[in-house]
Design a protein that fits this description.
193 residues; globular; purine biosynthesis; GART; Formyl_transf_N_sf; Formyl_transf_N; phosphoribosylglycinamide formyltransferase activity
Length: 193
């Protein structure tokens, strides 16, 4: 069984979607949901679906001994970032090399990097006059949104689309594709040699 931790900071629609996708999976278990925010609704979603949900404040999250003890306690093999708004510390990147995925609400390398999250991304896409947007799934490294791209999905935009319209279109892609990308990556990452 591959034990997956989902790291979240907000509402948790992707988190819930991923938990539901893997609920009866024979090889993958969502073993933990971790948030850096005590009021993240994703924690409630996880608990409602029977998944342990834990809050780790900034200082605790960046404490190698505390984080690695937690990861070992839940036997975590793989980490998925689903709207997690904190940089991943180097010790975690080393421990989970090519085993941490992130979703970004734009077509990287455009509209990525520090400060580019949530509505800021969609406002930037609108301001740039883009004719399409999309979602990107990428490996996590020490550069914000700089890891190798695994998959991208596109959706067309209209000149009349507001940032909220752009966000809604992009979110459909996340809901439709993110769990399947995770499943495909896990099947390749943990396949017998």
């Amino acid at each position: 069984m591959i034990n997956v931790a989902i790291f979240v900071s907000g509402n948790g629609t992707n988190c819930e979607n991923i938990i539901r996708h893997f609920a009866d999976h024979k090889n993958v278990k969502i073993a933990l949901v971790l948030s850096n925010k005590i009021d993240a609704y994703a924690l409630t979603r996880a608990r409602n679906l029977g998944v342990p949900a834990i809050v780790m404040t900034h200082n605790h999250f960046n404490d190698e001994s505390q984080m690695m003890v937690l990861m070992r306690a839940y036997h975590i093999d793989f980490i998925v970032l689903a709207g997690f708004l904190q940089m991943i510390p180097d010790f975690l990147i080393r421990a989970y090399d090519h085993r941490i995925l992130n979703i970004h609400p734009a077509l990287l390398p455009k509209f990525g990097g520090k400060g580019m999250y949530g509505h800021y991304v969609h406002e930037a896409v609108k301001a740039a006059g883009e004719t399409e947007t999309g979602m990107t799934v990428h490996w996590v490294n020490s550069v914000c949104d700089g890891g190798e791209i695994i998959a991208q999905f596109h959706t067309p935009l209209s000149p009349t689309d507001s940032p909220a319209d752009i966000a809604a279109k992009e979110h459909v892609l996340e809901q439709d594709y993110f769990p399947f990308v995770i499943e495909k990556v896990l099947s390749h990452s943990f396949s017998p040699s």
